[in-house]
Amino acid sequence: MTNKTMPGMILGTMAVVIIAAVIFVYNTNQDNTAIEVVPVTKAPVVREPVKPTPQPLPDPSPVAPPEVLTPTEAAPELPAIVNAPITLDNSDASVLMAARDLTPTLTKWLLPKEQIRKWVLAVDLMADGKLPKRYRPVDYPMAKFKTQASGLDEVTSDENYQRMNAMIETVTSIDQATLVRYYQEWLPLLEKAYREQGKPDTFNQRFLQTISQVLAVSPLEQQPALTRPSVLYQFESQEYESATDVEKLLWRMGPDNAEALQAFLRELRYQLQQ
To answer: Which regions span the lipid bilayer (predicted)?
Structure first.
């Protein structure tokens, strides 16, 4: 429930209570009990009215001047945002405008077609700890993966962490209040794209689950040993290799980037729940 709807509900509830109280008091005083009529058997005694003793008027007290109320300052108008498209088809131009409004740097990494459907699919997968292998909404170039020696083992090089710096800095620089306004404005269209998948829950539920997935990732205490059975590196320990895609992604971006992303999403979740 948003702060905008809460005052209206409180005032509406108070109005109903006041009206109900007035009706109750009115009906109680207007019951149908018969009034007993007592006949007069003799003439009433007429008494001379008692003249009131005049009382001295109190000294007039100085009247305080009326209080001058300062008009309440009007709340500043929020900057305009890009309206949500009416339909999913041909919505990519609006997505590009919205992304440019949030952070212009992001636009150079967006893949141009079917943006909303791609983002909805990505969020749905990440809610289960997975990452999209196809139909990715973003094409972010990264330098070649590097390793370094650690005793007899081969582990991830710390130089890899810098590959994600630009993306994390771009995302965490977004104004969260504006992002929440966009999310609330565009949520009906996101829900429509999610319903196309024929699933029973909602996109909003999956989005919050995705945030929880990211926040649940713990940093590595030390770099696990790597192995290279084919083209790609894998963790030598099955414990680490069986981790989710989301966990591995945060490990690859390094502890500083992961901490910055988690702090951003933690605050975003708080604002969405207000």
So the answer is: 7-26
By the 8 A CB rule, do 257 and 161 touch?
yes
For 31-76, the pLDDT digits (tens) are 333 333 334 344 444 445 555 555 555 555 555 565 655 556 666 7
- Which amino acid type is present at position 193? A
Specify the pLDDT at position 274: 82
Q: Does residue 205 contact residue 103 with C-beta atoms inside 8 Å?
A: no
Distances 16 to 19, 26, 30 between C-alpha atoms, Å: 5, 15, 21
- Would you list the domain boundaries of the chain? 92-272
Cα distances from 114 to residues 38, 87, 93, 138, 167, in angstroms, run 89, 12, 10, 11, 21
CA dihedral 90, 91, 92, 98 (to 10 degrees): 160
CA 14 to chain CA mean position, Å: 28
Q: Residue 1's pLDDT is what?
A: 41
Residue type, 87: T
What is the pTM for the complete model shown? 0.71
Cα distance between residue 138 and residue 99, in whole Å: 12
Which whole number is the average pLDDT over 146-165? 94
Question: What is the rounded average pLDDT for all residues in the chain?
Answer: 81
Q: Does position 6 have pLDDT exceeding 90, yes or no?
A: no
Residue 213 scores a pLDDT above 70? yes
Q: For the chain, first and last CA: distance in Å?
A: 7
Q: Whole-angstrom Cα distance, residue 14 to residue 179?
A: 34
- Cα four-point dihedral sign 24, 27, 29, 33: negative
Alpha carbon separation from 189 to 25, 86, 182, 254 (Å, rounded): 50, 8, 11, 34
